[in-house]
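As a warm-up, study this chain.
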Amino acid sequence: SVIEVAKALEQDCRARYIDCRSEEELGSGVVPNSVNLPYPHNGDKEIVDPHEWLEDVEFEEFDKTTRLFVGCRKGHRSAMACEVLINAGYTNVTNVRGGMLAWSRAMLPMVPFKG
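Now compare it with the structure written out below.
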């Protein structure tokens, strides 16, 4: 649940939240200290190449064992992103089911996107 994700992020300073929503969706707020890496598109019809997306993930210098929580608006796009991460050898990946809609409904902390 999103409540368990929020607790894990609070308790594990190395855990990270990857928000794969498009930049235009971030106006409603983001998870504190999250990283925005849009997947599988960035709000338009152009598909983000999985290999290019992985390069963005690697740029963030996440270790392959870093606890990664991946979310989007509802959880569908983040499920695809999790598959890409797992296929690339990341071993501690969790899809945030319900995404930011569930996060917001649970009234968990959100901050404005700073771009």
